[in-house]
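Chapter review: from sequence to fold.
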Amino acid sequence: MSLCCTDFKTSLETDGFFVVENLLSPAEVREYAANLTRLCAECGEDGVYPHPRLNIQYEPGFVNAGLTPAQRELGIRKYHGTGLVDPWFWNSVRSPKLRPFLEQALGARPKILQAMALVKPPEIGSPKDWHQDSPYFSFSPRNECLGVWVAIDEATHDNGCMQVIPGSHLLGEIPHVQGPTGWRLDPAVVAQHQDRVVALPMKPGSALIFNPLTLHFTDSNTTKQRRRAFQYHYVSERTTAKDAIHQAYPLDSAEPPLAKFRTKELWDAYCATFKKRAQAG
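The token string follows.
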């Protein structure tokens, strides 16, 4: 099976994923990494980012208090909300390099649902169990969503590259249970398809575009190098959310859609209003 077939739509429909080599240039990769470092430096001494909708998470057991930003950065496992809050990352969400893929899969006016950076720190980066991304979302129609995962560092077998099961999106949504790092599949379900697992080592700047129903997994990082990647989820224009947290946003705004909610009180007030409108139909 060719992992980089030329027919994006066919590969996505058949295998549930498609690899794009060198989507970003080396300069773009360096700029992305530098802006992740900037976000870490903008945190307070407690390691908390000052905007309530941009959440920085650390590896379990990592104590970030009293560390310099450079030391603290080596314990980060996730930056959640990057592209919905920060202007630089908002522009990366709207990258013209991604638009042809988004429009072919989702239509002319895709929306951004989720934007984050996923990190496996050196030697302590924990595995992410086998899962589908769909349990994390609450929107309809459920089948009009696309994931984009782009390597910022080289992703290898030893530092936690993506592993997928080709064609597993055709199984539909599978029940998940809560695990130590979020939703996960019953190991017995995965065992039925273990002989079909494909690992996807990737160079910096290369992208995995995938159906959120595709079963995927990343192992622990046992190396001395970080493995950073950004992951965005997009939906079609006609999707609707059941709550404000899962709302998706058009890509034509000049400003990040959540930047204005600079306090928890502002965000809570917006969520309450959204809920009232949704209940009113």
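Two observations follow directly from the output. The two ends are 47 Å apart (CA to CA). The chain is about 25% helix and 25% strand.
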